[in-house]
Amino acid sequence: MSNEITRNCKKHGNLIGSEIIRKGKLKSGNQAYRCRKCMQELHKNNYNKNKNELYEKIKKYKQENKDLVRKWKRDFFVKNREKYLPSKRLRDRERHKKGVKDLTDDYLKHLISKRSSIKYSDIPKSLIELKRCLLMTKRKISEVSKSNKMDHKK
Amino acid sequence: MKIKNAEQLRNFVLKSIEDLDHGIIDVEKLSIISKSAEAIFSSIKLELAYNNMRNEVPNIDFL
To answer: Do the beta carbons of residue A152 and residue B32 sit within 8 Å?
Structure first.
């Protein structure tokens, strides 16, 4: 005879094993059980209902315990360094490559503000467009001169 | 032709690229235009940086 606990749920029918979770104790002192799916739904509904309050509470706690949160973050990073560090580097590299290839606004802003006190927010759209145009011209010149050299060799 | 702002300069450079494609100008001429445009661009950038710097300095009344 197996000692597996079985219960009956009004919503999900007969429950066996991992479908049941422990939830407090009865007045008689015996263990109380609940349906796992029902409890999940209950927690989900409660979370959705009190989401904003919860976020504010977490935000407030983080502001009050900045040092502690910083320590947690540092510990987490040290523990998972191998997992996160290369991926971030790869992500940055890919973003940079995309910027160079497509001449994205961020890349051009970076080029314009390089070695100067100009902030990204101060750069007007016309200047970004001009920089893009100048880079396109440079690329065009190098492309044409390369093809000319190849023709001379032939 | 007088170039007054960044937009006009951009249009001029774009037109030069089109001229190169149509064979009206050659690469050397385009490279000269490009270098001149770079110089004007630098001056615009310098002006922008100067204006920002001047705005950042607080106006302190000593009197």
So the answer is: no
Nearest CB partner across the interface for A131, out of B31, B33, B41: B41
What ipTM does the predicted assembly reach?
0.83
Q: How far is the C-alpha of A93 from the C-alpha of A104, rounded, in Å?
A: 14
Taking only the tens of pLDDT, chain B with its 63 residues reads 677 788 889 999 999 999 998 989 999 999 999 999 999 999 989 888 888 877 765 555 544
Q: Using a CB–CB cutoff of 8 Å, tell me whether B15 touches chain A.
A: no
Alpha helices in chain A (DSSP H): 36-49, 51-64, 66-79, 81-102, 105-113, 125-153
Q: Coil, strand, or helix at residue A35? A: strand
